[in-house]
Amino acid sequence: MPTPTPAYDPNNVFAKILRGEIPAERVCDSKHSFAFYDISPLAPIHVLVIPRGAYTDLHDFLSRASDEEILDFWKLVDKISAEQSLIPSGFRLVSNLGPDGGQEVPHFHVHLLGGRPLGPVLPSNR
Ligand code: AMP
Questions:
Q1: Catalytic residue positions?
Q2: CA distance 117 to 72
Q3: How far apart are the first and last CA of the chain?
Q4: Could you list the pLDDT tens digit for every one of the 126 residues in the chain?
Q5: Which of 33, 92, 102, 119 is deepest in the core (most CB within 10 A)?
Q6: Which sequence ranges are marked TM in the entry (predicted)?
Q7: Which atom of ligand 1 is nearest to the CA of 96?
C-alpha cells in the first residue's frame, strides 16, 4: 500500500476501527477491505465498506490504490449485496466526498443501504 497522503488523518474513527482500537460490528472482510454496520443506521441494512489502506476519499483511493486493492474493494461490495439478500430487490451505494458531499469521516468508505424502498436520492429542493 502506498504512503498516506499528508492530508490523511490517522486518528480518524475508521482508522481506529482498522487498528482494533475501537469496536465495530463486522459484516465481512477481505485481504484489502473491511465491512461493518453503521453505528447510526439510516435503513434496515446499512453497511460501511472501507479499504484497509489509508485513503481519504474516492478520488484518493482511485488515484493511488493498486488495481488489486480496487478490485478487492468492489468485489467485497458485490459479495455483501448478495449475502445480505439485496439482489434482486436492490440497494443504494453512496460515497460522500469532501465538504459539499457531507463527508464526516476522512477515510474512504461507501454506504451500502437497503432493505426497503429508499425513495429519491435527495430531497428535490436544490
Ligand atoms: P460520512 O458522512 O459519509 O463520512 O459517513 C460516516 C458514517 O460513519 C456515518 O453514517 C456514521 O454513522 C458512521 N460512523 C461513525 N462512527 C462510527 C463507528 N464507530 N462505527 C460505525 N459507524 C460509524
A1: 109
A2: 28
A3: 39
A4: 777 776 899 999 999 999 999 999 999 999 999 999 999 999 999 999 999 999 999 999 999 999 999 999 999 999 999 999 999 999 999 999 999 999 999 999 999 999 999 999 998 877
A5: 33
A6: none
A7: 3
